[in-house]
Specification:
This is Mannosylglycerate hydrolase MGH1-like glycoside hydrolase domain-containing protein. InterPro entries: 6-hairpin_glycosidase_sf (IPR008928), 6hp_glycosidase-like_sf (IPR012341), Glycoside_hydrolase_63 (IPR004888), MGH1-like_GH (IPR054491). Residues 433-453 are annotated as: Disordered. By secondary structure, the chain is mainly alpha-helical. It has helices at residues 2-11, 30-40, 45-56, 83-86, 88-91, 112-122, 124-130, 132-150, 176-180, 206-221, 238-258, 263-282, 321-332, 368-380, 384-400, 421-434; strands at 28-29, 68-69, 160-161, 235-236, 283-284, 289-290, 293-294, 366-367, 406-407, 414-415. A 3-stranded antiparallel beta sheet has the order 3-4-7. It has a 3-stranded antiparallel beta sheet with strand order 8-9-10. A two-stranded antiparallel ribbon has the order 1-2. A hairpin with a 4-residue loop joins strand 5 and strand 6. The protein is globular.
Length: 453
């Protein structure tokens, strides 16, 4: 399995970064690259560093890290929305989009500081020699400032997503109510390229896509300026905010290692404020998990849908004991089935929910990055036996599904793309943590075809 995972990462490497898959996702994706770097560190620390460095060369001057960095060699029709839709270099000029690199205008969850810290720890000597953290720290700090300063649309201290693609769980049933207000773009104004590579029953519907296009068009036409954009969709998601908190803790470690030493305390204080806001605004004791908050709705704004994003705060250090206990009870109960005989991996959405669908993208299938994060959270809170069992289940499902993009949570059958990069990377990370190293970093000729510096 190590050889298979290594082969996937080698084949999907483009020379500067890694595509999630050559067919369905032929560009560089933001949170994919963070997860990929976590696995790459076991094969080539230099390549893992370069993965993150390449992504951050496309960072905008306002601090945002775009969710896609486009490869100009890929034909426009290979992926939609393509660079000529986003028009980042022109429409995003006022927000500081790069002039020479085309990107999208929205973002994805901030896993990057956590990834950078793990990559550094894999080989601190090489990291220090190359100035990896020293060069990346200001960019990571600017990225977090963008999220906390420009995206606190609710005024309660949490980051808001302005498009369903931003939390990474694109067509989650959590977005159904907020999206119901959005008038979809006309079907003849765009052509979906994703259906050329994936079964329609696995992918978001045409109605969903029409609404995605409408929201992205509104943001682009506002020139990606958050203070002026209408943000018809604005949701505080527990997954994004939990990952930001975990990355703030990582950024404190990075600052202590390579940034202004005094900045470390500032990052820890910000993590504490974010944690308090997460508990105050998104914790639902009756549900026993965190819920999303729709900032454009009347009433409380909490969305009464259970997604795996509501369990991801297990990666946040220092949660109250009663919250951790409730999260574990929910994760192992009938809604998510962790550890039960009927569920291979934790699904992306409530097993008992009316909108559950074991095949369709984020409406039920299990994803490897979500389960990797939950395994990490279980271990952080001392649930070693459950973490070990989940790790075994992740590796089994990755192996039997040919490193699929996602799987049916009941059967483990692979769905979506195969030979998926973050599945390979995270499987490799879990494999390496259970046995001898896959190899000595940067010393296997079969891995590195060209010299890396």
């Amino acid at each position: 399995m190590r050889r298979t995972a290594r082969g996937v990462l080698l084949r999907n490497w483009t020379g500067a970064s890694t595509v999630p898959s050559h067919g369905l996702y032929p560009h560089q994706w933001s949170w994919d690259s963070a997860f990929i770097a976590i696995g790459l560190r076991h094969l080539s620390v230099l390549r893992a560093q370069r993965e993150l460095e390449t992504l951050f060369t496309a960072q905008w001057e306002d601090g945002r890290v775009p969710h896609i960095v486009f490869n100009p060699a890929v034909p426009l029709g290979a992926y939609f929305p393509s660079p000529d839709f986003w028009r980042s270099s022109s429409a995003g000029a006022a927000a500081g989009a790069p002039a020479a690199t085309e990107t999208s205008g929205i973002v994805q969850p901030p896993v990057h500081a956590l990834a950078a810290w793990l990559v550094h720890r894999a080989d601190p000597e090489t990291s220090r020699r190359r100035g990896f953290l020293r060069r990346l720290y200001p960019r990571l700090a600017a990225w977090h400032r963008y999220l906390t300063d420009r995206r606190d649309l609710g005024g309660g201290g949490l980051v808001a997503a302005v498009h369903p693609w931003e939390p990474g769980m694109d067509n989650s049933p959590c977005w159904d109510r907020p999206l119901a207000r959005i008038e979809p773009a006309a079907p003849d104004t765009f052509r979906r390229a994703d259906l050329d590579h994936g079964a329609a029953e696995d992918r978001p519907t045409d109605l969903d896509y029409g609404r995605y296009v409408r929201l992205a068009t509104e943001y682009r036409d506002a020139r990606y300026r958050d203070a002026e954009a209408p943000h018809s969709f604005a949701v505080e998601d527990p997954g994004i905010n939990a990952l930001l908190i975990a990355s703030e803790h990582a950024l404190a470690s990075i600052a202590a290692e390579a940034g202004p030493p005094a900045a470390a305390d500032g990052h820890r204080e910000r993590a504490a404020r974010l944690t308090a806001a997460l508990l105050e605004r998104l914790w639902d004791a009756e549900a026993g998990q965190f819920l999303c908050r729709d900032l454009r709705s009347a009433g409380s704004g909490l969305v009464p849908e259970r997604s795996a994003a509501g369990l991801l705060p297990l990666i946040v250090p220092g949660l109250p004991d009663d919250v951790v206990t409730a999260l574990l009870r929910t994760a192992t109960g009938r809604h998510f089935g962790l550890g039960s005989a009927d569920v291979r991996l934790v699904p992306s959405y409530d097993l008992c929910g009316e909108a559950f669908n074991a095949k369709r993208y984020w409406r039920g299938p299990a994803w490897f990055n979500v389960n990797w994060l939950l395994e990490r959270g279980l271990r952080q809170y001392g649930r070693e036996a459950r973490a070990d069992a989940l790790r075994t289940a992740i590796l089994s499902a990755a192996d039997s599904s040919s490193l699929a993009e996602y799987v049916d949570p009941h059967t483990g059958r692979g769905r979506g793309a195969r030979d998926f990069s973050w599945t390979a990377a995270l499987a490799l990370d879990l494999l390496t943590s259970t046995g001898p190293p896959a190899q000595t970093p940067d010393r296997e000729p079969a891995l590195v075809h060209t010299r890396e510096t």
